[in-house]
Fold this sequence. Notes:
The complex is a heterodimer.
Chain A: E1 2-7, H1 8-18, E2 23-26, H2 34-39, E3 46-49, H3 53-65, E4 70-75, H4 76-81, H5 83-92, E5 98-104, H6 118-124, E6 128-129, H7 134-151, E7 155-160, H8 161-164, E8 166-172, H9 187-190, H10 194-217, E9 222-224, E10 231-235, H11 237-245, E11 250-254, E12 256-258, H12 262-269, E13 275-278, H13 284-291, E14 296-297, H14 310-325, H15 359-367, E15 373-375, H16 400-414, E16 425-430, H17 431-447, E17 453-458, H18 487-494, E18 498-502, H19 507-519, E19 524-529, E20 542-546, E21 565-568, E22 571-574, H20 584-588, E23 594-598
Parallel strand pairs in A: 2-3, 2-4, 4-5, 5-7, 6-7, 10-11, 10-13, 13-14, 15-16, 16-17, 17-19, 18-19
Antiparallel strand pairs in A: 1-8, 6-12, 9-11, 20-23, 21-22
Helix pairs in contact in A: 1-7, 3-5, 11-14, 15-19, 16-17
Chain B: E1 2-9, H1 14-27, E2 31-35, E3 46-54, E4 67-72, H2 75-80, E5 85-94, H3 101-104, H4 114-119, E6 124-128, H5 130-137, H6 143-152, H7 159-169, H8 175-188
Parallel strand pairs in B: 1-4, 4-5, 5-6
Antiparallel strand pairs in B: 1-3, 2-3
Helix pairs in contact in B: 1-7, 5-6, 5-8, 6-8
Amino acid sequence: MKRRLLSGxxxxxxxxxxxxxxxxxxxxxxxxxxxxxxxxIHPELYCEWSPNEKVALEVAIGAALGGARALTAMKxxxxxxxxxxxxxxxxxxxxxxxxxxxxxDPGMHSSQNEQDSRYYARMAKVPLLEPADSQQAYxxxxxxxxxxxxxxxxxxxxxxxxxxxxxxxxxxxxxxxETDLAYEKDSVKRVMIPGHARMRHxxxxxxxxxLEREAESCPFNHEEMRxxxxxxxTSGVCYQYTREAFPEASxxxxxxxxxxPEKIIREFASHFHRLYVIEELEPYLEEGLxxxxxxxxxxxxxxxxxxxxxxxxxxxxxxxxxxxxxxxGGGWSRPAERPDLPxxxxxxxxxxxxxxxxxxxxxxxxxxxxxxVVAGDIGCxxxxxxxxxxxxxxxxxxxxxxxxxxxxxxxxxxxxxNAESAGKVVGILGDSTFIHSGIPGxxxxxxxxxxxxxxxxxxxxxxxxxxxxxxxxxxxxxxxxSLGLDLEELCKAVGVDSVRVIDPWELEESExxxxxEIGSDHTSVIISHRPxxxxxxxxxxxxxxxxxxxxxxxxxxxKLGCPAxxxxxxxxxxEEDLCVGCSMCAQVCRPGALVEVREDD
Amino acid sequence: xxxxxxxxxxxxxxVLSAQVLAETALSLGFDVKTSEVHGMAQRGGSxxxxxxxxxxxxxxxxxxxxxxxxxxxxxxxxxxxxxxxxLEGTAIVNDYSMDPLTVLRGDVVYPVSALExxxxxxxxxxxxxxxGLASEAGNPRAAGSCLLGALSSFLEFPxxxxxxxxxxxxxxxxxxxxxxxxxxxxxxxxxYEA
Lengths: 601, 194
């Protein structure tokens, strides 16, 4: 046995490797990204970055049917993309085990919503496991593959940010199982024409009874009896917060949470006159218990919004539990009042920013001069919404900017209220996002003839999630050279009238091309091509310096919002160790006070 | 239980420093948990990492008012996370400020009294020029190892345990610089009582 400190994501990857997974797929998405990165270091598996989560799941389904244990990992909103195959997969079943890992992001550290993916298990009637730390994540993965194969069903493993990105001690074995099942054709079971599907849906429902029996005897559902007066039902990372805040409380720690293990819950509940449920986001367990007729106290006290922690759990329930039962919080006490502490809300915010030299900055600076209505998308460039660029008007999910641009244009051009904006609609998205789910929207634009313009921010990587390759880079997850998707040729092939390529570091030229294409009455794509500065070779070996004699402190360069260009008192200075030499500040400097310096000078 | 919160700006290396600290505690047989953030928050925004060790650790998150040490990679970020520090806690502060964009734009003013505010709210404050010492060691980006060196003088972890973790987890080309930065940070705090 090895003993190591692993993040939840690393533990899942390690466990999947040991469980004999032969195919692993994902599209990157915080907080799930490292699962595929970690598992792809093993040459024994086939791993891929898929173009999106739907394809990732479909590849995993094919692999499982074909006899290989398969895993696909995604963030919570990725499961929305994969929801179509997800909902019918339980009908056709699997062959070798199939594990879908979904990582929710309560508190939205790096997400656009905080949906609770536990409901996806209930909706699809798929068993759901939720670990409370990395060790449990490790143990659950192996068990989940056995469960999957015992019941011919995919299994959903739900993580949260504080499981995925917390490191905890894991003891693990080092041998890898071998899995390779025979493939046999069974089209009645696996081809869901209505007649077959009508036969399969009852199988899915009946399976739930078997799964509930599994949940009742599952090693991951167990009682920890302490005080006879306080009983708390919880699961996942909330178990840890509960243990810390109420070390004296009895806890029913649930790890297999769909189907809900009714007998275990009833048995536990029978010991207490009042039962508490501590869970993050939605009242999923609470609703389950209430549907069983068990009265519980949960979301009337515990917030439904944002991430929990031991302080919140203690503050929301501590006094009530103490009053109710006489059991002291023990682990929890309100922090001492500290009147001298600075008011955190009054401190300057430090929102994330685009890096010095980021090519997106140039594009948004140029676009800002064009008076466009801009539908944005998901990626680093979403940060352009903040001052000073304030570059996007609306944004909802991966790839949506394309369809939204078409819809905006139609609303403007078919009405009178905003008719003057009809010719100024832009949809803007990154290369990886475009490939993920922007292409069907572009086909719609061509098919239904729009004058809206799409800008593809082609920085040759999936930057926000940590610089993963994608089909456009032509490099696979294991670093092998493949065929790279040519975005320009793709846009031409679907019939876009005008495809232009610009370098977003060239501000005047970018502005000129954007104005031409926005002003045109045909469908245009502008490919804003410049590799991310964080990639090898992304910056230049020069930096810029302020010529104090020439600088008039007009502040024009500050409108780029570059972290390397700062105002110190009345003077502008350039932080030389941050500057990557993109020259954009010098291009906008009217007195010509920003001068290039070679690094060896 | 010993609780350390590392607060800084995305890109300063708080995540790596947290890992070195956690692995050192693990190597001494403790139960250890850490928590960190990835993704969008890392792009120059406020970031915090948490490290906890004891015989048994439950929550990966430190409750407010319970941290024994605050490692502030930047002054404003130290100030922002003071509420985590216990009344008896020690703040180890890199005497370095980075203006957030909200300040650069002139919307708000950087709290000039940040270090004084930290002083008046922590039982003990150690301020070191971690960036300067790291530059002396060979690279200002090794400031995190200076702060760990400073922290090490308050913990009863053997020096070779720290060095072993730095060797294992810092990328090879930065290893020697970080070992030197660690030693300089430790030396800068040799006068304090553990």
